[in-house]
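Example for tutorial group B:
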C-alpha cells in the first residue's frame, strides 16, 4: 500500500494533496483485488455514439463484436455529503521523535478522504475545533472547494508550542455542527477523546444530536497506542506536561503503569461500548498505522447510505 510511504518525508515536502493522491492511488490499487473493485461511478447502460462526441467512453470491445459505436453511460452518484470534523487542540499535537503527531495523522487522513470523495464525486466539508468551532465549511464537490480545504488543513501541520496552547471543548462544538450540517450527512470525527472525562454522558448526548438529525457518525479515536494506551516508557523519571494547560508533574511511569493502564482502558472501553449502544461506529486509529482503515470506513458507510 502506498500509505506506508515515509510520511515524515512527505510532510517535510509540504504538499498535502500530493500525499493524498499517493495514498488513494495505492488504496484503489488494493481495492481492485477486493469486492470493492467497482466502487467508482457506476456503469448504467450503453447508448449509440453521436458523431462529434468525445470518444473517451466508447466501448471498443462492443464495437469489435457489433461494428457499431456505443458509449457507456454512468450514474454519477453525488448525493452523499461527508463532514470531516477534527479536534485541533494542543493534546492532538503529541508526538514521539521520528513520529507524526495525532493531529498530523488526522489531517493526512482527512486529505486522503477528500481525494477519495473527489473520485466518488461526493461532497465534502471540514469542521476544525479547539475550545470553539474554529472553521466550518459546508459540503461541496467543486475543485476550488477541494483546494481551499487542502489549504486550510495544511495550516495545521504544525508543532507544539507552549506559547499557543489550545484547550478542548468538544460537546458544544458537536451540538453546533449537528445543526450546521446538511441532514443525512456522513460525519467523521477525529479526536483523541482527551476531554473532561466527567462529562462522558454529555458527550454522547451531543453525538445523539447528530444521530437525531439523521447523520451517520464515525468516531476515529486517534491515539499513540504504544505510549498513551500501553504506557510503554523506560524505567526512569519523566516530566509529564499537560499540553493544554501547561501543568507539569515529575514521576517514574513504572510506579503507576498498571493503575494507569487499568483506568485508561476502562474509560476507553466505556466509550466504545456506548458508541455501540448508540449505533455509532468507533474506530481505534493508532498513528503508527496507515490510513487504509479510514478510507475503508468511508466506502462501507457509503454503500449502506446509498
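The residue assignment follows.
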Amino acid at each position: 500500500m502506498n500509505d506506508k510511504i515515509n510520511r515524515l518525508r512527505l510532510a517535510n515536502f509540504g504538499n498535502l494533496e500530493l500525499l493524498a493522491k499517493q495514498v488513494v492511488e495505492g488504496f484503489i490499487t488494493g481495492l481492485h483485488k477486493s469486492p470493492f473493485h467497482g466502487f467508482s461511478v457506476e456503469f448504467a447502460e450503453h447508448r449509440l455514439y453521436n458523431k462529434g462526441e468525445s470518444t473517451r467512453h466508447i466501448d471498443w470491445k462492443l464495437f469489435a463484436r457489433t461494428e457499431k459505436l456505443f458509449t457507456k453511460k454512468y450514474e454519477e452518484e453525488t448525493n452523499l455529503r461527508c463532514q470531516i470534523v477534527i479536534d485541533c487542540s494542543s493534546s492532538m499535537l503529541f508526538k514521539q521523535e521520528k513520529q507524526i503527531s495525532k493531529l498530523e495523522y488526522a489531517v493526512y487522513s482527512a486529505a486522503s478522504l477528500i481525494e477519495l470523495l473527489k473520485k466518488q464525486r461526493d461532497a465534502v466539508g471540514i469542521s476544525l475545533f479547539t475550545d470553539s468551532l474554529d472553521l466550518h465549511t459546508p459540503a461541496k464537490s467543486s475543485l476550488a472547494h477541494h483546494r481551499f480545504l487542502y489549504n486550510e488543513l495544511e495550516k495545521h501541520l504544525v508543532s507544539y508550542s507552549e506559547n499557543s496552547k489550545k484547550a478542548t471543548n468538544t460537546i458544544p462544538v458537536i451540538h453546533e455542527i449537528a445543526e450546521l450540517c446538511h441532514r443525512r450527512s456522513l460525519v467523521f470525527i477525529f479526536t483523541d477523546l482527551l476531554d473532561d472525562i466527567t462529562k462522558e454522558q454529555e458527550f454522547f448526548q451531543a453525538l445523539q444530536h447528530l444521530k437525531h438529525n439523521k447523520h451517520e457518525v464515525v468516531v476515529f479515536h486517534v491515539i499513540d497506542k504504544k505510549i498513551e494506551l500501553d504506557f510503554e516508557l523506560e524505567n526512569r523519571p519523566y516530566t509529564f506536561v499537560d499540553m493544554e494547560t501547561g501543568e507539569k508533574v515529575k514521576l517514574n511511569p513504572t510506579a503507576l503503569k498498571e493503575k494507569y493502564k487499568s483506568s485508561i482502558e476502562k474509560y476507553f472501553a466505556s466509550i466504545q461500548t456506548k458508541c455501540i449502544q448508540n449505533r455509532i461506529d468507533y474506530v481505534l486509529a493508532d498513528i503508527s498505522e496507515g490510513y487504509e482503515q479510514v478510507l475503508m470506513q468511508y466506502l462501507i458507510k457509503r454503500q449502506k447510505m446509498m
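The chain has two domains: 2-30+79-305, 42-75. Compare this with the pattern of hydrophobic and polar residues in the output above.
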